[in-house]
Amino acid sequence: MTCIALQARLDSTRLPGKSLLLIDEKPLIFRVMEALNCIPADLRILACTEDSISSFKPLAAEAGFEIFAGPKDDVLERYCQVIRRYKITRVIRATGDNPFVFTDAATAINAEALAINADYAGYSGLPYGAGVESVSASALLGAGNEASSPYDREHVCPYLYTHPELFSLHHPLAPLRWQGSNLRLTVDTQEDFDRAVCLYGALKNEPLRYYGTTIIKKHEEIFKK
């Protein structure tokens, strides 16, 4: 079973409450789920923290996501709990900061991961905030058993790609149509959020399933003038 697991929390030091800030009358976290709905998967879960579940639950239901609360700082363990609870075999990992995830690129990298049975797969060369990671459940559970540093526990996947002797890694350069490593699409600051509102307005009539291809073009039009 392939699951899109979206990690999110309410508290943010640089942009407090950013998950609930509105982009065209819907919270940021809803826009993230809206985009992720274009990626084929058997199950979709918003993996949040206990202190955010009451705020996120109605939004998850509206977007068609299950909701699951786990540890706040040990995000790796949160993912492991999701895997054990729902008997997942592969996770498409996404984060709540990224309303412009390249859904077409995400679909492609997950298909590549499945085709070669990679433990970990993710494109390089995408804009910051555009990518997802496709990870086998067994690899994440293995990392959960072995990883000990706070950084590895908080960021979920570093233990995998820093131990290539233990895991099968697939980290190719993204196809040219999705490349844009100089571009920033994540939402971490007020400036990021203001940019996201502007970009969403320019994209609202574009199909979400082609976000990667269209965003590269629209970003140039809007922000390179």
Characterise the protein shown here.
The protein has 225 residues and is α/β, with parallel strands linked by helices. The chain has one domain (2-223): Spore Coat Polysaccharide Biosynthesis Protein SpsA, Chain A. Helices cover 41% and strands 16% of the residues. It has helices at residues 28-36, 53-63, 75-86, 103-116, 137-146, 150-155, 158-161, 190-203, 211-223, and strands at 2-7, 22-23, 26-27, 43-49, 66-70, 90-95, 120-121, 133-136, 169-170. The strands form 2 sheets. A 7-stranded mixed sheet has the order 5-4-1-6-8-7-9, with helices on both faces. A two-stranded antiparallel ribbon has the order 2-3. Helix 3 (75-86) packs across helix 5. It is globular, with a radius of gyration of 17 Å. It starts with a strand and ends with a helix. The model has no long low-confidence stretch (mean pLDDT 93).
Q: CATH class, please?
A: Alpha Beta
The fraction of residues assigned to DSSP E strands is 15-25%
The dominant shape is globular
Helical/strand content category? alpha/beta
Mean pLDDT: 93
Strand line-up across the major sheet? 5-4-1-6-8-7-9
Q: Residue ranges: pLDDT <50 for 5 or more in a row? A: none
Q: Give the topology string: H per helix, E per strand.
A: EEEHEHEHEHEEHHHEHH
Name of the CATH superfamily:
Spore Coat Polysaccharide Biosynthesis Protein SpsA, Chain A
Number of strands: 9
Number of domains: 1
Distance between the termini: 45 Å
Q: What is the CATH architecture term?
A: Alpha-Beta Complex
Number of helix segments?
9
Helix content: 40-55%
Rg, rounded, reads: 17 Å
Largest sheet: 7 strands, mixed
The CATH topology corresponds to Spore Coat Polysaccharide Biosynthesis Protein SpsA, Chain A
